[in-house]
């Protein structure tokens, strides 16, 4: 029956630290891009998509921090809302990517950073898609780890085995 064994991802502390660092960098870079492209280059399209990318990275950071602080222990089903949010962020990123790519090609634009440089905007639409995907995957991984814990506890109760939590503090 080894073929029927389902692997459930366990979130290691190392992967949580990596996610925290990457998401923090994503927030910082998104904010820097917003200010830099909006106020220095006057490329408001790229600046706003950089801000949206930073906000999506902020959501991924928030979900990871909440998981590491055990906020979801009471109701891990709330992570499904973040999965759905990640899907919508991905959809916005893909739509923006295609729209700005079509604009850049139809206007026969070169790679310019000032004002309406659409190729740079496609980069930040892709980055927004990436952080939407990260939010979806982080939330999904965290939800699966809770589901695995829940199924183990229910399995112990179904077979009448004592849970490891029940034996804490009992005298042998």
UniProtKB/TrEMBL annotation:
Membrane topology type: Multi-pass membrane protein
GO cellular component, one term: lysosomal membrane
Annotated GO MF terms: heme binding; heme transmembrane transporter activity
Residue spans crossing the bilayer: 20-41, 47-67, 79-105, 117-138
Keyword field: Endosome, Lysosome, Membrane, Transmembrane, Transmembrane helix, Transport
Entry keyword Membrane: yes
Family: Belongs to the HRG family.
Record's protein name: Uncharacterized protein
Organism of provenance: Candidula unifasciata
């Amino acid at each position: 029956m080894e073929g029927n064994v389902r692997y459930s991802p366990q979130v290691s502390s190392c992967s949580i630290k990596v996610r925290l660092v990457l998401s923090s960098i994503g927030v910082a870079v998104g904010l820097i891009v917003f200010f830099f492209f909006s106020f220095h280059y006057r490329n408001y399209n790229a600046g706003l998509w950089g801000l949206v990318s930073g906000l999506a990275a902020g959501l991924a950071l928030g979900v990871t921090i909440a998981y590491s602080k055990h906020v979801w222990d009471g109701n891990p089903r709330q992570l499904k809302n973040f999965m759905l949010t990640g899907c919508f962020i991905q959809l916005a990123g893909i739509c923006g990517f295609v729209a700005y790519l079509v604009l850049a090609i139809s206007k026969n634009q070169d790679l310019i950073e000032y004002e309406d440089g659409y190729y740079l905007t496609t980069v930040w639409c892709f980055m927004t898609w990436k952080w939407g995907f990260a939010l979806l995957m982080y939330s999904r991984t965290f939800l699966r780890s809770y589901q695995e814990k829940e199924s183990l506890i229910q399995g112990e109760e179904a077979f009448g085995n004592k849970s490891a939590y029940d034996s804490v503090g009992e005298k042998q």
